[in-house]
Amino acid sequence: MLNKFRRVIHGLLSVYCGLASFNMGSRGLWLAIFVWSVAAMSLELLIHEGVKYHQEETKT
Fold it and tell me: How far apart are CA 41 and CA 50, in angstroms?
């Protein structure tokens, strides 16, 4: 379930970045790569923290 959600988000980010780079040229490509990497890292961190929080809540 989590991996499916992660794949969908990564897919949407890839599509967005492709469209942004197509519309803005090479400057847009670098901007899109930067946005994609930051969003992917923050999504991973958010998922990791959410899972850790959920595990702690179910322990008690």
Answer: 14
